[in-house]
Write a structure and sequence with these properties.
By secondary structure, the protein is mainly α. The chain has helices at 2-23, 30-37, 42-48, 51-60, 76-93, 95-107, 112-135, 144-156, 172-178, 181-197. Keywords: DNA-binding. One of its GO terms (molecular function) is DNA binding.
Length: 201
């Protein structure tokens, strides 16, 4: 019985993640979620208490393992590389969840207040790494706020966009490597660190 309950909840969450990412929270109904999951309509209320709780449960069940990472900040460059690498892995593993997060941030939805519990912990880690790097002279930037926003933007949008493929004339090998998670992480780290190392301000 417990396994059946778990399976039903997983089906509902997977269906909700897919539909929320495609149509947004407001544009998705409980009926659509249940139809996608192949479960009875009443089961969303029974297991979660409503659509909003399904939404929060998506983030609660997908909290990244590095959320609890404690950086000593003795080597801010190494810490930043680890942070970027882990976030890129999350971005690639949970594209629908990150797309949903983008929507909520852009819309400044009323659900953002509760989501801050998960999001702000990550951004505080990044802020601490940047501050330590600047204090130790390995990072150079004029505005912590703007630098944090630039990096967050680069991380959240770390993905391949098929609609842009026609802009590039790439070799087959380069196209294959573009889909490699390790290469995406390495390129993102290279891009961000190059910007932070340049003392041009």
């Amino acid at each position: 019985m417990k396994q059946e309950t778990k399976d039903v909840k997983v089906k509902i969450l997977e269906a909700a993640k897919k539909l929320f990412a495609r149509g947004g929270f407001e544009g998705t109904t409980v009926r659509q979620i249940c139809e996608e999951a192949g479960v009875a309509l009443a089961l969303v209320s029974y297991h979660f208490g409503g659509k909003e709780n399904v939404f929060y449960a998506l983030f609660e069940s997908s909290v990244p393992r590095f959320l609890s990472t404690s950086y000593e900040l003795k080597d801010p460059e190494a810490d930043l590389k680890h942070f970027i690498h882990e976030f890129v892995q999350l971005r690639l593993a949970e594209p629908e969840l990150i797309n949903l997060l983008q929507q909520e941030i852009i819309m400044q939805s009323p659900r953002m207040e509760k989501l801050q519990t998960y999001i702000y912990t990550l951004w505080k880690q990044l802020r601490n790494i940047l501050e330590a790097g600047k204090e130790q002279g390995c990072f150079h930037f004029a505005s912590l706020k703007q630098t944090l926003h630039f990096i967050i933007g680069a991380l959240i949008f770390t993905r391949n966009v098929p609609a842009l493929d026609d802009l590039f004339e790439s070799s087959v090998n380069e196209q294959e490597n573009a889909d490699c998670a390790e290469d995406i992480a390495a390129n993102t780290i290279h891009f961000i660190l190059n910007g932070l190392r340049r003392n041009t301000v």
